[in-house]
Design brief:
Elements lengths: L12 H18 L7 E3 L8 E10 L9 E8 L1 E10 H8 L8 H20 L9 H4 L5 E3 L6 H14 L6 E5 L1 H9 L1 E2 L2 E2 H8 L4 E3 L6 E5 L5 E5 L4 E7 L3 E14 L5 E6 L1 H9 L3
Parallel strand pairs: 1-11, 5-14, 6-9
Antiparallel strand pairs: 2-3, 4-13, 6-10, 7-8, 10-14, 11-13, 12-13
Amino acid sequence: MNSLYRELAPISAAAWAEIEMEAKRTLKAGLAARKLVDFKGPLGLAVSAVDTGRRQSVAPLAGTKIDAQLRESQPLVEIRVPFEIERAELDALDRGAKDADLDPVIDAAQRIARAEDRAVFHGYAAALIKGICESAPDGPLPLTDNYEDYPLAVARALTRLRAAGVDGPYAIALGSHCYTGLTETTKGGYPVIEHVRQMLDGPIIFAPAVDGAAVLSTRGDDFELTVGQDISIGYLDHDREMVRLYLQERFTFRVLTPRAAVPLAYAKKGEERGKKGRG
């Protein structure tokens, strides 16, 4: 038996396979940051922190005259998203149903994906994570709802990156509001998002957890996502009608080169609207 306690769940091997398949394909589509930053792991359950390679001075041991340095590390945070599935739906899977209601799995996978992405791009202070957008040394470039001008904002971001000595390939992560605006707007009969695509030598990534957008280098060694236990499904309990499960992950994130990304942000009014729609 492992720490996920899956052996205790009243779920057949066939039903587990369907649940996992639904979770994996949702996560593949929803995990945006992993398409852009360095991924380290999974390193296993025993890993609880990342060595930063730094140290800080501490007071010497009483009665001694020595110099003492304390090694610094960054802890991994454990996040969990509970969900439940009707036992009737699990039974239907065992009977070969192709239309079983696995929406709770999809919802949980989307929620944990957005939580990881939110921490990567906007930070998670309680978990000692500073995000890509808040780490940018010169702050964000402004955005408006005039998406015909969006290529200009991207051009300015690319200029800032190159002036800072940051090489490409360059990519962009688009929040929901930005992505919708770019795909629905045309300039000269041509979708504006295609104008943006031509400016980049890296991908355009749909990232609903991002407020606004972020242009960043994908050359490597600038952003590091470290995962101990990768996203896994565990068992909580069950009754006659429902089986309660959860998705769980242990991770942390570090910005190694703050100047390797330029956030694009809406003015205050747009930010308030963007937060309601997550970007």
